[in-house]
Design brief:
Layout (H helix, E strand, L loop, with lengths): L2 H24 L6 H22 L4 H24 L12 H18 L5 H23 L6 H31 L3 H42 L10 H18 L3 E8 L2 H8 L1 H18 L5 E6 L2 E7 L2 H17 L2 E3 L2 E3 L3 E8 L6 H17 L5 E2 L4
Parallel strand pairs: 6-7
Antiparallel strand pairs: 1-3, 1-6, 2-3, 4-5
Helix pairs in contact: 1-2, 1-7, 2-3, 3-4, 3-5, 4-5, 5-6, 6-7, 9-10, 10-11
């Protein structure tokens, strides 16, 4: 076995190990399409290398089959990379290109000469194009919370892309100028070592992205109300603190609005708690759609929602009343019966009514009860 064959064998084993690791991780408690596709791509690539190395079948067939698998592998691996971006690569979209590649390989190996550069160039063209696409989308639209990991993987993929290009260029030049087999083996060995480093780096980056995605999912779950899907009390408090800091720094007022579903207990008593849950989800959806961009909605408990509204009292009052009217106008279809809903609200302003959560929430809560006692389906603010 030559030096090049030994290094390529190590590359093959490395790909099998990494591919198996990715597939095992993809089948854990948190299934990952990215890891599954990346793992299969590595295994397909390793199998293609194995077929070209072992050659248990005639040379033209082994080179055609092996290089076809090597050409197929980047399709699957890049599909795994793009699974972490808004763009999706469906492998079947590239099958026509793959089919042409296989035909070129078969024509060359069976009709021309299996020892030509076609076996090196044909799979490489597809790999270079796909790795370029994968790196581009990772840089342009990285997964939320994993920007650094995505950039690292994109840079590594660009390195891999140039490895493919440079390997072809070096072997092409050496073959034309000297036809020195030792020089070709040396180039193949060096680039195989680089490919091992790139494969490990890309796999590590992909795991890094998956870990960051899992962390972000846990954080979002901790800040989300499970019934309605809107932010929970903890998220509202965090956002309040952010808005308070900005208001102190820049002198911008904002309002804290508490909205409470009118006669909610009657819905529960008359229609049951499942219908009560539907009412809460309906109100949350209506408020989420109706709030202004930049305002923050959350559920703080029971049938109470909080909206943090940017602007002075006149702006906040207008926004609050618009939300109230949207609830009133948007009836709920409950198994064929249309339920009319209303909300009452209390509005307090930062800094006029207080500069901390407890003070502002307390003021808004008192005004909410003033709205309830005043006939419901209204918003009460200071001097309103």
């Amino acid at each position: 076995m030559t030096r090049a064959q030994t290094v390529v064998l190590a590359l093959l084993i490395m790909h099998y190990l990494l591919g198996g690791l990715c597939l095992a991780a993809a089948r854990s408690e948190r299934p990952s399409a990215a890891l599954r596709l990346w793992g299969w791509g590595l295994l397909i690539y390793a199998t293609g290398l194995a077929i070209t190395l072992v050659r248990v079948v005639p040379l033209p067939l082994s080179l055609t089959l092996g290089n076809a698998l090597i050409a197929w592998a980047p399709i699957i691996t890049v599909a795994g990379v793009l699974a972490n971006t808004p763009v999706r690569l469906k492998p079947r979209w590239t099958y026509p290109v793959l089919a042409v590649t296989i035909l070129v390989l078969a024509w060359n190996n069976f009709s021309v000469d299996p020892r030509t550069m076609v076996n090196l160039v044909a799979p490489s063209v597809l790999a270079v194009a796909l790795f370029g696409v994968g790196a581009y989308w990772l840089l342009r639209q990285p997964p939320p919370g994993a920007v650094l990991a995505a950039r690292f993987m994109a840079i590594t993929m660009l390195v891999a892309l140039w490895v493919w290009v440079l390997r072809i260029a070096f072997i092409w030049n050496i073959s034309r100028v000297t036809n020195d087999r030792d020089s070709v083996d040396l180039v193949i060995s060096l680039f195989a070592i680089v490919q091992m480093v790139v494969a490990v780096a890309c796999t590590m980056a992909l795991f890094w992205i998956e870990v960051r995605k899992a962390e972000l999912t846990l954080i979002q779950a901790a800040l989300t109300d499970t019934l309605t899907g809107v932010p929970n009390r903890r998220a509202v408090l965090e956002r309040f603190n952010e808005m308070e800091s900005l208001a102190v720094r820049h002198g911008h007022p904002f309002g804290l609005l508490i909205l409470d579903v009118d006669h909610f207990k009657q819905f529960n008593d008359r229609y049951g708690h499942l219908t009560g849950d539907r009412v809460l989800r309906h109100v949350a959806d209506t408020l989420a759609r109706g709030r202004r961009a930049g305002d923050f909605l959350g559920r703080v408990g029971g049938e109470e929602f909080v909206v943090l509204i940017n602007g002075d009292q006149a702006i906040a009052m207008a926004a609050a009343d618009r939300l109230r009217m949207q609830i009133q106008e948007n009836t709920l279809d409950c198994d064929g019966q249309m339920l009319s809903l209303t909300v009452s609200g209390g509005l307090s302003m930062f800094p006029a009514d207080g500069v901390d959560w407890d003070k502002l929430f307390g003021e808004a809560d008192r005004r909410l009860y003033a709205s309830k006692h005043g006939g419901r389906n209204r918003i009460t603010a200071k001097n309103a």
